[in-house]
UniProtKB/TrEMBL annotation:
Protein name: Transthyretin-like family-containing protein
A Pfam family per the record: TTR-52
Chief location bin: secreted
Record keywords: Secreted, Signal
UniProt record similarity statement: Belongs to the nematode transthyretin-like family.
GO cellular component: cell surface; extracellular region
Keyword Secreted set for record: yes
Residues in the signal sequence: 1-19
Record's subcellular location: Secreted
Keyword check for Ribonucleoprotein: no
Superkingdom of origin: Eukaryota
Amino acid sequence: MDYRIAIFLLTFCAFLTFAFPFGKKQKIIIIVKGHITCEGIPLDKILVKLVNYRKHRRDITLDTVKTRPNGSFYLKGKVKKTAKLNPKLKIWHKCSTSKTVLKTKLCYLKYSPKTPEIKKIMEYPKTVYTVDYKDVKLKKDKNYGEKDCLRFFQKFINN
């Protein structure tokens, strides 16, 4: 009869260990940096967002910044270790000669450049990846991205 209680307690402890794991769940850190120019001129105060792209689902926003006066940006985000890492950069800008975009001051162009190589720089104690976009060069004669007029109104909602 005593061995049944011992087996029950061992089974119960094993269940608790798997159901409620001890310690913090590890996270993956991703660092993104780069520089944005329009016709060679650095873009100042341009909204840049780092997201973890998920197909057929809403993206997870990892970090949001505005570019510095020299056009550079630095973003840092964390993702759960179990999540698939698929970083994507989103840029809202007005580098265009299109009359429809420039006509309204409320609209921006939302552009997502192709993600360069993702480099793993550290494994232990935390996994850290870096993505260097170097120079994102935009030209006025090409429309980089799609028109996004809701970005203007979100400024007032968030403030």
